[in-house]
Write a structure and sequence with these properties.
Shape: globular
Distance between the termini: 44 Å
Structural class: alpha/beta
Number of strands: 38
Strand order of the largest sheet: 14-13-10-11-12-15-16
Largest sheet: 7 strands, antiparallel
Strand content: 15-25%
């Protein structure tokens, strides 16, 4: 049946900011859907709050609303755009929940909007735990014994009949938020209370625990003619008990018999039909008892999911594209397979390789967290690797993580387990942690049998046997040695995934010597194609992975090629902003006639879509793997400066003549403290006093000269890794000791572990400013954007709200910032992007640091100004001049209008309640949102709403401020009182406010004092609607930590700087005066003026 002609405009809801449990896999799926629906002739309206994704570029939809994903905002968009249909299944749980809220509020009925892809009943049947359980019983499929509860009392009654241990699963949540396993009644009470709070409908399912069973997922597609296909089967290496997003997973499933697989396939189709997902992709999760083969259904996602992105990249089957076409009326047999061009989408993909996905966590960013994995997802990103065998793909995946490990063993990291008693090591391997896979290998290498390890850990014997083959090969390689290994021996090692770096460590050689010997023996990788059909048909799309066989499937080409190195796994400090830059570079260079080649290992991103670049290599971003691609493709240039620190770390090891744009020497000059200081001195640009120190004595010598407070940080890191502000000698000793012994920093390896520590005077109460610019090969220079930070210097720029245009900087200061940036760009010989961070104090401008590479602000600047900075930079790096790009129309002047754009960070503290929700110099945010409107206050208020902070309209505001924030606190409190709020404050803050004529309704006692109500009591009473609490340096922080924890526990909006408090109250004042307005980005880029002129 052809596409529907009775609908013209389709509203797509994106997934919002990157959060734990919902990363950029939904940006990839939403981007695909936007492109396909427009190709099909529909008008596409997109709502998404995330500026960092390519999905919110104005080219991808007809009307792009970068607005908070909120019921009131979506209602205004629907009112304005009058869409015929809403497609809610491609924006993760966020889109699904919003679609249900719009349905329940009557908005869809009022404006006659049809939900396509999945209707409200299907969504409710899958998401409501009780309805799903009933539906499965109707079709004869088993689920774990369970019952639902809506109150704590009901939960206590249910657990009496279900028993302990049990699993608690809230309804309508993402990434397992609020789920947990309870092994004692005390644990149950805690997890049940949190689960009820996490569910938007206050519903939890309490089910008998089946921890230790094997876990599987099937990715299913269905059309309205009831054709169903399985796209991919996925098996978890970890047994039940670890969230599938936190488990190492393998595709296709490795340990199912054909009979078991067919049962599971039939069950998945039955689930799809009963739940009523009429068209599109869904994900069904199963558990199998390894003792007797009993199978139960765990849950079903009636939407494109995280696993859909993995299945899509693993097979080459474009799930989101096909789901979008199915939603508008096509059937599977009418949609051609992009990759083969010969087969329809109703052919189930077949793969002749093994895919392994490995999560990446960020526990080191959250001191106080346990690092133990459970049923609530905690990872911040993931890698995927493809090999002909499981050992090959596992080892490729482990080295893709960039956490200092070279593979499963055979590297310095394995020594951590050598001295541990073996029974203690086995006990540790029974607990799900990021280290479990290495513990399993160590316990096998040290002599435990596969049977013993399986009995203890419940990790399937097949996986343990495969890991043993790596361990046995390692022993063989050590015995044979470097000189005597034959060509056949080299190939066998490589087919088991051993990298040159592992072999170098094992044999005590350099990696260069190992590579040279391998090439001398003619042992080279071959590149195979991901083709959806196990080579049964010719693949038309060059999507490749390396292995070590005899035939190569890369088609020869004589075009000028450029390799773009991607940014690897998402992590805090390096997110999709860098993927955005890589994708833009690919688009711009392809348009300019280059053949673009992407190298990356992240399955969640748009850069690893097979049609983003001319060629895609799904490979680890290590020296060996990248050099192999360079040798195979012979490019004219390699781009290392758009993918963040990952490719930048390779810039000094790749052939220098191939690095395009700013030279590696200039990148070093900006990172090397002595070279940088000399450059600033020569240019007469002031910078905070400081120095470099390799030990505590050198650091104390510096502080005796420059005074406290100081900022202490390692060089060559992203995301403020291990940065700290210290206020005295004792604090400096602690910080230096932590840096010297900091396991994760040392393990991450690379340049940061080999460089000294930077110790700089910290400028308190300064305004921080980011400047993005581009310089071309002729020295022509253009400012991309000047961003003023809301939080004062000392909060990492990635965690601070920032504003375009600057809202408090004078014209003179802006002129100085522009002049300094131009002079730095000239002195470094920048060709491409330059980001410079400044601190402005009492009218004087200090330079903090310069980064001659893409920064995380590039997408935000592009959305705010209408100038595609990353595209311009990519062309400049390949030799185009800014004058030529202006003539082409690629480089335009920034939009002239009255709009203000605010970028706000989204923080993951709700996932880590034990960590203090405090902002500082180390970055902790996982994603970002943007607020855009015609005043700073309105834009800031929108950014807060988009980030999950719903600013109140009345009630009591609690203030507890450090001395440095007390002046701004007076202005803030004054504004709150003008808006009719009551003020509660701690004694010191209350005294200061009262002295300045501000009425304080409630003064709270210090925590632990016997008399009076303390801050935590006040927050727990439910009387407080907003908390503004700024910390007092390194002094006694106990009260502040308790206040912030109480606010987090009770879901009360929390701001941790005085500046954010003032910005928030100004936003609240503007919101009270102006009705909510929504405008598409395309309208802002035409220039919108206050009063309606454009």
């Amino acid at each position: 049946m052809p596409r529907r002609t009775d609908i013209e405009t389709i509203l797509l809801i994106g997934s919002g900011p990157i959060v734990i449990g919902q990363a950029c896999e939904f940006d990839y799926s939403g981007t695909q859907a936007c492109r396909i629906l427009r190709q099909e002739g529909y008008r596409v309206v997109l709502a998404n709050s995330n500026p960092a994704t390519i999905m919110t570029d104005p080219d991808f939809a007809d009307a792009t609303y970068i607005e908070p994903l909120d019921l009131e905002v979506l209602t205004r968009i629907i009112e304005r755009e009058r869409p015929d249909a809403l497609l809610p299944t491609l924006g993760g749980q966020t889109a699904l929940n919003l679609a249900m809220a719009l349905e329940e509020a009557g908005v869809l009925a009022q404006y006659n909007v049809e939900m396509i892809g999945a209707d409200a009943l299907a969504i409710a049947t899958a998401e409501d735990r009780e309805l799903f359980k009933q539906a499965m019983a109707e079709i004869g499929l088993a689920t774990p014994k369970s019952a639902t509860a809506h109150t704590f009392e009901e939960a206590m009654n249910v657990v009496g009949s279900i028993g302990i241990p049990c699993v608690i699963r809230p309804a309508y949540i993402l990434g397992g938020r609020g789920t947990g396993i309870a092994s004692t009644m005390e644990e149950f009470e805690k997890v049940a209370a949190f689960g009820l709070e996490s569910s938007p409908i206050s519903e939890i399912l309490i089910e008998r625990s089946i921890a230790g069973w094997k876990e599987y997922e099937l990715e299913v597609m269905r059309d309205h003619a009831d054709n169903c296909v399985i796209v991919c089967s996925i098996e978890n290496v970890d047994p039940m008990g670890v969230h599938t997003g936190d488990s190492i997973t393998v595709a296709p499933a490795q340990t199912l018999s054909d009979y078991e697989y067919q049962l599971m396939r039939d069950a998945a189709f039955a689930v799809m039909r009963r739940v009523g997902v009429e068209t599109g992709g869904s994900n069904v999760q199963f558990a199998v008892n390894p003792e007797n083969g009993d199978m139960v259904v765990i849950e079903m996602n009636p939407r494109v999911s995280r696993s859909s992105a993995l299945a899509s990249k693993a097979t080459g089957f474009p799930i989101a594209k096909i789901a979008a076409r199915l939603a508008v009326g096509y059937t599977l047999d009418e949609i051609p397979n992009d990759i083969t061009k010969m087969t329809p989408a109703s052919f189930e993909p077949t793969i002749d390789y093994v895919v392994t996905k490995i999560p990446r966590w960020a526990f080191e960013k959250f001191p106080g967290t346990s690092g133990v994995l459970g049923t609530q997802m905690q990872s911040v990103g993931e890698v995927m690797a493809i090999g002909r065998t499981f050992p090959e793909s596992l080892q490729k995946g482990l080295r893709s993580l960039e956490q200092g490990r070279l593979g499963l063993n055979c590297d310095p990291g394995e020594a951590a387990y050598d001295d541990m008693p073996i029974d203690e090591l086995l006990a540790q391997a029974c607990i799900g942690t990021p280290e479990r896979i290495f513990q399993l290998e160590a316990v096998l290498r040290r002599g435990k049998s596969i049977e013993e390890v399986y009995a203890a850990t419940k990790v399937d014997p097949w996986f343990l046997d495969q890991m043993s083959s790596i361990t046995e090969e390692r022993a063989h390689l050590a015995e044979v040695g470097f000189q005597d290994l034959t060509c056949t021996g080299w190939k066998r090692a490589k087919r088991l995934g051993f990298s040159d770096a592992q072999l170098a460590w094992l044999w005590g050689r350099t990696e260069a010597e190992v590579r040279s010997r391998r090439l001398e023996l003619g042992v080279l990788p071959t590149y195979k194609t991901v083709d959806t059909c196990a080579a049964e048909f010719d693949a038309k799309t060059p999507y490749h992975y390396s292995t070590w066989e005899d035939t190569d499937e890369v088609a020869p080409s004589d075009r000028k090629k450029v390799i773009i190195l991607g940014s690897g796994p998402n992590r805090i400090g390096q997110g999709i902003e860098f993927d955005y830059c890589c994708v833009h570079a690919s688009f711009a260079l392809r348009d300019a006639g280059f053949e673009t080649i992407m190298v990356n290992c992240n399955p969640e991103t748009v850069s690893t879509d097979y049609d983003t670049s001319d060629r895609l290599y799904f490979e680890p971003l290590t020296h060996e793997d990248v050099m192999n691609v360079i040798d195979a493709e012979k490019p004219v240039g390699v781009i290392v400066s758009l993918g963040g620190q990952t490719p930048l770390k390779l810039s000094n090891t790749l052939p220098a003549q191939l690095i395009v744009g700013t030279s590696p020497a200039s990148i070093d000059a900006a990172e090397d403290r002595e070279l940088w200081n000399a450059l600033c001195a020569r240019l007469e640009i002031p910078q905070p006093a400081g120095g470099t120190a390799a030990d505590i004595d050198a650091a104390l010598t510096i502080t005796s000269r420059i005074g406290y407070p100081v900022l202490v940080r390692p060089s060559y890191v992203l995301g403020g890794r291990a940065m700290e502000i210290v206020y005295d000698d004792e604090g400096l000793r602690v910080a230096m000791t932590q840096l010297a012994t900091f396991g994760s920093l040392g393990k991450e390896g690379g340049l940061s572990a080999e460089r000294p520590v930077l110790v700089d005077r910290f400028l308190e109460d300064a305004t921080e400013v980011d400047v993005d610019s581009i310089r071309d090969v002729n020295g022509d220079f253009v400012i991309g954007g000047i961003m003023e930070h809301v939080e004062e210097a000392g909060v990492h720029s990635g965690d601070s709200a920032c504003v375009i245009p600057p809202y408090s900087l004078s014209a003179e200061t802006i002129a100085v910032l522009t002049d300094y940036s131009r002079r730095i760009a000239d002195a470094l010989g920048v060709i491409g992007l330059l980001n410079v961070q400044y601190a402005v104090k009492s009218g004087q401008v200090f330079v903090i640091e310069a980064n001659p590479r893409a920064s995380r602000t590039v997408p935000f600047v592009a959305k705010a100004t209408g100038v595609p900075l990353a595209k311009v930079a990519a062309r400049v790096m390949l030799g185009a001049t800014l004058t030529e790009l202006r003539a082409e129309g690629l480089l335009s002047e920034p939009v002239q209008g009255d709009h203000v754009a605010v970028k706000e960070a989204v923080l993951p503290f709700s996932r880590f309640p034990e960590a203090d929700a405090l902002l500082g110099p180390e970055m902790r945010s996982t994603g970002e949102v943007m607020g855009i409107d015609l005043t700073f206050g309105l834009a800031f208020a929108k950014s807060q709403l988009a980030a999950g902070t719903n600013l109140p309209t009345s009630g009591t505001v609690f203030l507890s401020l450090a001395d440095r924030d007390k002046e701004v606190g007076v202005k803030t409190a004054q504004r709150f009182r003008e808006l009719g709020f009551l003020i509660a404050a701690t004694s010191g803050t209350a005294e200061h406010l009262t002295r300045n004529g501000i009425d304080v309704a409630t003064v709270v006692a210090k925590i632990g004092e016997p008399d009076g109500q303390d801050a935590v009591d006040l927050i727990e009473s439910g009387d407080v609607v907003l908390v503004v609490n700024s910390p007092r340096g390194r002094g006694p922080r106990a009260d502040g930590a308790h206040i912030r924890a109480a606010a987090g526990k009770h879901n009360i909006p929390l701001l941790t700087t005085g500046a954010a408090g003032l910005a928030a109250v100004n936003g609240m004042a503007d919101r009270a005066e102006h009705p909510l307005e929504v405008r598409p980005l395309q309208e802002y880029h035409q220039g919108v003026r206050r009063g309606g002129a454009s």
